[in-house]
């Protein structure tokens, strides 16, 4: 469950094996779970997470997420030494255990359907989101045609219009709104004229 699993520990931290990961590659979303974790935004929560990781001998993390997840990873990394010192002072771990686990390695991977991160062609999640959008468009296009109606489809993307733009191009949409290019005054008349054509 993401950072929630780190903070809670217990059965949330387990070794992946061949049986636990077989037959999951085709599933949408994340099989290992995902959760917003208020506790991890506090030092006390990160201290619990550090304790749970050290208990399992884990000093390498692969964090897949967006701005919040990656910011949390950076804070966790920068505090790691201090967290271990605090655990030693509280008697939760020995100095020897702290020395053995003194370095926390983190790899951050951008998991965002928005595809709004430089340095990569496509962020994790974008391709599957586009695939799902196109399935929906294919399904509703015949309904729109048979009813001779105009359908409006809203896609996710927060402040990034990548999904809307690419799915609009791929589906031959007649009109498109994206946050990077807000509509100019009089857009309603232009849209009606375009649809009339």
Automatic annotation (TrEMBL):
Reaction catalyzed: beta-D-fructose 6-phosphate + ATP = beta-D-fructose 1,6-bisphosphate + ADP + H(+)
InterPro entries linked to this entry: ATP_PFK, Phosphofructokinase_dom, PKF_sf
Residue ranges constituting the Phosphofructokinase domain according to the UniProt record: 1-184
GO molecular-function terms, A-Z: 6-phosphofructokinase activity; AMP binding; ATP binding; fructose-6-phosphate binding; identical protein binding; metal ion binding; monosaccharide binding
Statement: the UniProt record of this protein carries the keyword Glycoprotein: no
Cofactor(s) needed: Mg(2+)
Keyword DNA-binding recorded: no
Domain of life of the organism encoding this protein: Eukaryota
Gene3D superfamilies the UniProt entry points to: 3.40.50.450
Gene Ontology biological-process annotations: canonical glycolysis; fructose 1,6-bisphosphate metabolic process; fructose 6-phosphate metabolic process
Pathway: Carbohydrate degradation; glycolysis; D-glyceraldehyde 3-phosphate and glycerone phosphate from D-glucose: step 3/4
Pfam family, one: PFK
Cellular component GO terms, alphabetical: 6-phosphofructokinase complex; membrane
Keywords, alphabetical: Cytoplasm, Glycolysis, Kinase, Magnesium, Metal-binding, Transferase
Record-linked SUPFAM superfamilies: Phosphofructokinase
Alphabetical list of PANTHER family matching this protein: ATP-DEPENDENT 6-PHOSPHOFRUCTOKINASE, LIVER TYPE, PHOSPHOFRUCTOKINASE
Name of protein: PFKAL protein
Gene name in the database record: Pfkl_1
């Amino acid at each position: 469950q993401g950072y929630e699993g780190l903070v809670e520990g217990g059965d949330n931290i387990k070794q992946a094996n061949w049986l636990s990961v077989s037959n999951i590659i085709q599933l949408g979303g994340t099989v290992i779970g995902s959760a917003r974790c208020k506790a991890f935004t506090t030092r006390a929560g990160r201290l619990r997470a550090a304790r749970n990781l050290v208990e399992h001998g884990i000093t390498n993390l692969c964090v897949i997420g967006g701005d919040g997840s990656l910011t949390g990873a950076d804070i966790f990394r920068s505090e790691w030494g201090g967290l271990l010192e605090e655990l030693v002072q509280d008697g939760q771990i020995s100095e020897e255990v702290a020395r053995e686990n003194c370095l926390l390695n983190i790899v951050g991977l951008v998991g965002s359907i928005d595809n709004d991160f430089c340095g990569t062609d496509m962020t994790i999640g974008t391709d599957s989101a586009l695939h799902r959008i196109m399935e929906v468009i294919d399904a509703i296009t015949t309904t729109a045609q048979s009813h001779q109606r105009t359908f409006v489809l809203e896609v996710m993307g927060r402040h990034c219009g990548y999904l809307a733009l690419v799915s609009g191009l791929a589906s031959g949409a007649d009109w498109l709104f994206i946050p990077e290019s807000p509509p100019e005054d009089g857009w309603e008349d232009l849209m009606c004229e375009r649809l009339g054509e």
